[in-house]
Amino acid sequence: MAGRKRYAAVAVAAAALITAPTAAYGVSPAGPASAARPAHGAAVPAHARVLQVAKTAPTARIVAPDEHVTEPGGAEFWLTPEGKHWTTPDNPYPQFTNVVNGNIDLHTPGVSAFVEGTAQGHVTLSGVYYGGTGTASRVTVRTTAGTLHAKLLELAGNPGWGVWYVSTDLPAADQDYAVRHVVVRDTTGAVYSRLDLN
Fold first, then answer.
1. Nearest 5 degrees, angle CA 89-CA 151-CA 100?
2. What are the residue boundaries of the structural domains of the chain, listed by start?
3. 83-96 pLDDT, tens per residue?
4. Do 71 and 77 form a contact (C-beta atoms < 8 A)?
5. Which of 11, 65, 144, 163 is most buried, most CB within 10 Å of its CB?
6. Where are the beta strands (DSSP E) in 27-135?
């Protein structure tokens, strides 16, 4: 009987450990071990949460100058120090957005947006983001077809700008009004830059 009681006590203790909530904590090399852990259930400091988010958040794909990236719908993008270059299936002639000629203020947060569609209703949306604080991480594009999540491209060396792109199917009648909002967020979730159209 004593053996059963001891077994039951161990089982209860193990269950309590498994179901107990966890908390992140850090250890200060100079402080005592008892000061390293917050009280049970204590909140993790805000700066620790921000660092954790920044550590796991995605960032732009870093590309070499003139490295071509093909979007699933067939559009191609490549970056040079001068700006964004691209082609689409319906327009194979290269297009260009210059980021160094003074038309874009790289010190002020901003986003551009281009919508290019095919007769079949496939739309490529893209643009340049620039001037924000922090590291660009995610781009959300609200359109007449719903909310899309774009991919990001940047050159190495923190040039202060990058390119976003995404594609979707959209009725031809809606293509002129496709983009409602473009919001670029940094690795902490804060707004890096945004564009509001409709």
1. 80
2. 61-196
3. 999 999 888 999 99
4. yes
5. 163
6. 61-63, 69-70, 76-80, 83-88, 91-98, 110-111, 114-117, 122-130
Question: In the numeric block, which tokens belong to residue 99?
Answer: 């980021």
β strands within 99-190, DSSP E: 110-111, 114-117, 122-130, 136-143, 146-155, 161-169, 179-186
Residues pairing with 141 in the sheet: 148, 182
Distances (CA, A) of 60 to 136, 138, 154, 194: 7, 8, 6, 17
Residues 6 or more apart in contact with residue 89 via CB below 8 angstroms: 73, 74, 75, 118, 122
| CATH 2.60.40 assigned to 61-196 | yes
79's tokens: 């970056």
In sequence order, which residues have a C-beta less than 8 Å from that of residue 47 and are 6 or more positions away? Answer: none
Please write the tens of the pLDDT for every residue from 45-69. 655 454 454 456 899 999 999 999 9
pTM given for the model: 0.71
